[in-house]
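Study this protein:
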Amino acid sequence: MKKIYLSLMSLLTISSCYYHDSDPTVVQNVILYNKSVPTIKSYLAGKWKLNYKIGGLSGNQRTDYFSTFYDFEFLAVDTFSRIDSGKVTINSPISWLKFPVFANDSIYVIEYKLPNGVELAFYPKEIKSGVLDLVEPCPDCYSYFLMRAN
């Protein structure tokens, strides 16, 4: 019985290590707000599923999402798309802005436009336990929490 248990545990350990080593797009933990634009792009590229957002005036207002995806493409023109229930609701070029936060510190903010022309922005804060945190740069705005979609 001990041999079977040890064999099973060894197999699970090896297979879990193999999975992470074989897929370089699986990132579990990385701080993004202090990285360069090319580095941020390398982590953001692709499709992400929006799980929920938290923030607002109270700071803890939560909205859950079930069929909303964000898609970042970095080709000749950097673009951001939002897909709600299979329908593209935002498809906008991205502008990268350097935004001062403290004395000599700054972050890169992603600015995009809604279909009605309103400009919005967020910055990629981090990926923690595989969850991407996108933050709107204002005092009472929201943080958006996404996981990579397959």
Remarks:
- Confidence is low (pLDDT under 50) at residues 1-24.
- The chain has one domain: 27-148.
- DSSP finds two helices and ten strands in the chain.
- Residues 34 and 67 are 30 Å apart (CA to CA).
